[in-house]
Write a structure and sequence with these properties.
Largest sheet: 4 strands, antiparallel
Number of strands: 7
Order of helices and strands: EHHHEEEHEHEE
Number of domains: 1
Shape: globular
CATH architecture: 3-Layer(aba) Sandwich
CATH topology: Aminopeptidase
CATH class: Alpha Beta
Structural class: alpha+beta
CATH superfamily: Gcn5-related N-acetyltransferase (GNAT)
Length: about 170
């Protein structure tokens, strides 16, 4: 069961398709809105971050990248996006009420396994400031700070991170 103070009891991970656009958008919007009121980003940054992509752009990304959706009780609670061609983990988002229940970790491990299976030896990502410790726990190491342009002259600070996939060490 998911929602409020309820616990995520069973998580199923599957590859997404074009029919999952609404689910991915809903998870993204909820996760980004969950950042409102925290210390990392302003309301203007969150507003711009929440409007990062159009439905057409998301459909194109689903067609060319590997997206995974996490469901609990048949409800989408998270997703991850892996760009094998660029060797980049583009995103891992989890609904705020489902965070800290292992959803993000399962999604990340699924993406890491897919990256290894695709022959990648190293994976990079740009982490939002709130997620740095999450990625560090997965073995990613910081390469430095970067700024993402979100549009309308708004940018957000992120941390570029990397992880080797061929061994236990996260050192790039």
């Amino acid at each position: 069961m998911v929602g409020g103070d309820e616990v995520v009891t069973h998580i199923a991970i599957r590859r997404t398709g074009p029919d999952d656009v609404d689910s991915i958008t809903a998870v993204h919007d909820a996760a980004v809105e969950g950042e409102r009121g925290r210390d990392h980003y302003t309301d203007a940054q969150i507003d711009a971050w929440a409007r990062l992509r159009s439905v057409a752009k998301l459909r194109a990304q689903i067609a060319e990248r590997r997206f995974f959706i996490a469901e609990s009780s048949r409800r989408p609670v998270g997703y991850a996006q892996l760009d094998v061609r660029e060797a980049v983990l583009r995103s891992v988002y989890v609904r705020p009420e489902c965070q800290r229940h292992g959803v993000g970790r399962l999604l990340a491990h699924t993406a890491l396994r897919e990256a290894r299976d695709a022959g990648l030896q190293r994976l990079e990502l740009d982490s939002s400031l709130n997620a740095v410790s999450f990625y560090e726990a997965l073995g990613f190491v910081s390469l430095g700070c970067v700024d993402h342009e979100l549009g309308n002259c708004v940018s957000m600070s992120c941390v570029r991170m990397a992880r080797c996939l061929d061994g236990e060490s996260g050192q790039p």
